[in-house]
Write a structure and sequence with these properties.
The protein has 195 residues and is mainly beta. The chain has one helix and 16 strands. A hairpin with an 8-residue loop joins strand 2 and strand 3. Keywords: Signal.
Length: 195
């Protein structure tokens, strides 16, 4: 499957998943551009997920040995000790992710970290807030922030709904908090997408 046809297929899959889950983010008409390619190293089909966590909804699968376009990478829930997840081409606010545990970046690919193109947004917690390795309440807890804590959010994405809010914010240091218990100070963080 060519990079162009994969990008079109991924955008369609993610759009369908967004509609099926009631996601309200606007889907851009042009998919995010791939920064490079990766080869699937899994021995069986690799699951494509809606967020960078094993807990997220399955969107599709990719056959072993396939070459796929990669937009950017992000730290998410650990899969066999590997926290890297790659974003596949899709629209802004839409997303599809594969675990870096089963992907090898191909020579010449320069896959940047997602959400690093803009300045982090200032946020304040509205309750004691659990910090996690991935954007899901079942992902590993790595600590907490006290109510009223001011910090920064690198970027945001849609994942598990918490109290009706599906946004999760990535903090500096690559961990996650639910936006349900966060106030933005000034602007909202940008989407976790590539350049």
């Amino acid at each position: 499957m060519s990079v162009t046809s994969w990008a079109k297929r991924a955008a369609g899959i993610v759009a369908a998943a967004a509609l099926a889950t009631g996601a309200t983010a606007a889907l851009a008409s042009t998919p995010a551009q791939a920064a490079g390619d990766g080869k699937v190293t899994a021995k069986s089909s690799l699951t494509v997920r809606y967020a960078p966590t094993r807990q997220a909804m399955k969107v599709s699968t990719i056959r072993p040995g396939a070459t796929v376009p990669l937009v950017c990478k992000i730290a998410g829930a650990s899969i066999e000790g590997n926290r890297t997840w790659y974003q596949l081409p899709a629209g802004e606010g839409a997303q599809s992710w594969i675990s870096g545990r089963y992907v090898k970046e191909l020579r010449g690919s320069k896959i940047a970290w997602c959400g690093t193109t803009s300045k982090p947004a200032a946020i304040r917690t509205t309750a004691k807030l659990t910090v996690r390795h991935g954007p899901n309440t079942h992902d590993t807890s790595v600590g907490s922030l006290k109510k009223g804590t001011r910090t920064k959010a690198v970027c945001k994405l849609k994942a598990q709904s918490v109290g009706g809010n599906t946004l999760w914010y990535q903090l500096p240091g690559s961990n996650w908090v639910s936006a349900r218990y966060v106030d933005n100070i000034g602007g909202s963080p940008t989407w976790c997408v590539g350049n």
